[in-house]
C-alpha cells in the first residue's frame, strides 16, 4: 500500500479490518516493525481522536510520531502554482511538502474543505498537493471529501457487534447542526459500508443529498421513521448541503435521534464519529444508554491507524 486515502476494494478492506482486530488483541505484537521510522502528522484543522489515536498507533509499531499543527504553528501555506506571493501566504506547498518528505517516512494529513469552493473541495485539491509534492506515502487524517480511518474504525466496530451470517441493515441519518459541516465522514461511511457489502439506507431532509459518487447503491429514504424500521445500526451525522454547496437548509430538531425514533428498529446500535454536540445532533438518552457505540468507535481508531501504518511499512 502506497497511500491510504479511500476505500480501495473489499479484499483490502477486509484485510485491514482483520489486521485492526488483531492489533486490538495484541497491540504491541509488531513493536519492532517501525523502529527507526518517523511519521509526520500534519494538521491543517483541529482534532482530538485522530491526533491521539494515530500517535498511539505509530508508537505501538515502534515509530516516532511528530505532530505539527500547521494551522497554528506552521507558516501560512500557498497552494496555487505560479502566484506572486505578495499577500498573506508565506510558504508554498511545493517547498513545505518537499521538506516534510525529507523529514518523514510517512506523512499523515488533515485538510478540511473550504465549503465555499466546490470544485477545489471535490478534487481534494489541498490534500492532493501534499501527495504531489512530498514524494512519500500519505495517509488521510480526513480530507475535504473523505475520512477513511474513521470509516475503517466504523467497519471494525460493526463487525465486533454483529455475529450473524447475513449483513446488517445500516442506516446513515442526517442530524441537525448549527454550523456548516463537511461531507467527509458521511461520504466515507457510505463508501465503506457499501464497499463492504452492507445493506445501507441513507435518510436526510430534502436538499441534503450527498454526492452520488459516494452513495451509488444505497437506498435513499427521505422519511426518517421509515428508514429506521428494522435497522441494526444507525450512524448519526450532520452534513451541509452538497448541491447548494455548504449551505444549511434546515436545522429541524425533529431529526435528532431519541429512543422513541428506534422503537421499530431491531434494537439498533447507534454510532457517531465524535465530536458530537449533545442534544443538538444526538440526545443524551441515546449517548448515555446501552445502544451507544461511540466510545468503542473512538477506541478502534487506534487499531485502524495501526493496521494502515503497518500495511504501508510493508
Ligand atoms: N472523529 C474524529 O476524527 O475526531 P477528531 O476530529 O477529534 O480527530
Strand content: 5-15%
Head-to-tail CA distance between termini: 8 Å
CATH classification, class level of the largest domain: Alpha Beta
What is the CATH-assigned architecture of the largest domain?
3-Layer(aba) Sandwich
Domain Aspartate/ornithine carbamoyltransferase carbamoyl-P binding: 10-160
Function: Catalyzes the transfer of the carbamoyl group from carbamoyl phosphate to the delta-amino group of N(2)-succinyl-L-ornithine to produce N(2)-succinyl-L-citrulline. Is essential for arginine biosynthesis.
Catalytic activity: N(2)-succinyl-L-ornithine + carbamoyl phosphate = N(2)-succinyl-L-citrulline + phosphate + H(+)
InterPro entries: ArgF'-like, Asp/Orn_carbamoyltranf_P-bd, Asp/Orn_carbamoylTrfase, Asp/Orn_carbamoylTrfase_sf, Asp_carbamoyltransf_Asp/Orn-bd
How do the strands and helices of this protein lay out in sequence?
Elements: H1 10-25, E1 38-43, H2 49-60, E2 64-69, E3 77-78, E4 91-92, H3 93-103, E5 106-110, H4 118-122, H5 125-134, E6 138-140, H6 148-160, E7 169-174, H7 184-195, E8 199-203, H8 212-215, E9 219-220, H9 224-228, E10 233-237, E11 269-271, H10 284-287, H11 294-313
Parallel strand pairs: 1-2, 1-5, 3-4, 5-6, 7-8, 7-10, 8-9, 10-11
Helix pairs in contact: 1-6, 1-11, 2-11, 3-5, 6-7, 6-11
Subunit structure: Homotrimer.
Protein name: N-succinylornithine carbamoyltransferase
Function: Catalyzes the transfer of the carbamoyl group from carbamoyl phosphate to the delta-amino group of N(2)-succinyl-L-ornithine to produce N(2)-succinyl-L-citrulline. Is essential for arginine biosynthesis.
Amino acid at each position: 500500500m502506497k497511500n491510504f486515502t479511500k476505500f480501495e476494494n473489499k479484499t483490502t478492506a477486509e484485510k485491514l479490518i482483520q489486521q485492526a482486530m488483531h492489533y486490538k488483541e495484541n497491540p504491541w505484537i509488531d513493536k519492532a516493525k517501525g523502529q527507526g521510522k518517523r511519521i509526520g502528522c500534519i494538521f491543517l484543522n483541529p482534532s482530538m481522536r485522530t491526533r491521539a489515536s494515530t500517535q498511539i498507533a505509530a508508537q505501538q509499531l515502534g515509530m516516532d510520531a511528530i505532530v505539527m499543527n500547521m494551522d497554528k504553528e506552521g507558516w501560512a501555506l500557498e497552494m496555487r502554482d505560479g502566484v506572486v506571493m505578495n499577500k498573506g501566504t508565506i510558504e508554498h506547498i511545493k517547498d513545505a511538502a518537499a521538506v516534510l518528505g525529507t523529514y518523514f517516512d510517512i506523512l499523515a494529513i488533515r485538510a478540511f474543505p473550504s465549503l465555499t469552493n466546490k470544485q477545489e473541495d471535490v478534487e481534494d485539491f489541498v490534500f492532493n498537493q501534499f501527495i504531489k509534492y512530498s514524494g512519500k506515502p500519505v495517509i488521510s487524517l480526513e480530507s475535504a471529501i473523505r475520512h477513511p480511518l474513521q470509516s475503517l474504525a466504523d467497519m471494525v466496530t460493526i463487525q465486533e457487534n454483529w455475529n450473524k451470517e447475513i449483513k446488517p441493515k445500516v442506516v446513515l441519518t442526517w442530524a441537525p447542526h448549527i454550523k456548516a459541516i463537511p461531507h467527509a465522514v458521511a461520504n466515507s461511511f457510505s463508501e465503506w459500508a457499501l464497499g463492504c457489502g452492507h445493506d445501507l439506507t441513507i435518510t436526510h431532509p430534502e436538499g441534503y443529498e450527498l454526492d452520488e459518487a459516494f452513495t451509488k447503491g444505497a437506498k435513499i429514504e427521505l422519511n426518517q421513521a421509515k428508514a429506521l424500521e428494522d435497522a441494526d445500526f444507525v450512524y448519526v451525522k450532520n452534513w451541509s448541503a452538497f448541491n447548494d454547496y455548504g449551505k444549511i437548509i434546515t436545522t429541524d430538531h425533529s431529526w435528532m435521534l431519541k429512543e422513541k425514533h428506534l422503537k421499530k428498529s431491531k434494537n439498533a446500535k447507534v454510532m457517531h464519529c465524535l465530536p458530537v454536540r449533545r442534544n443538538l445532533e444526538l440526545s443524551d438518552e441515546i449517548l448515555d444508554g446501552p445502544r451507544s457505540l461511540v466510545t468503542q468507535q473512538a477506541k478502534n481508531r487506534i487499531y485502524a491507524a495501526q493496521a494502515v501504518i503497518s500495511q504501508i511499512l510493508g
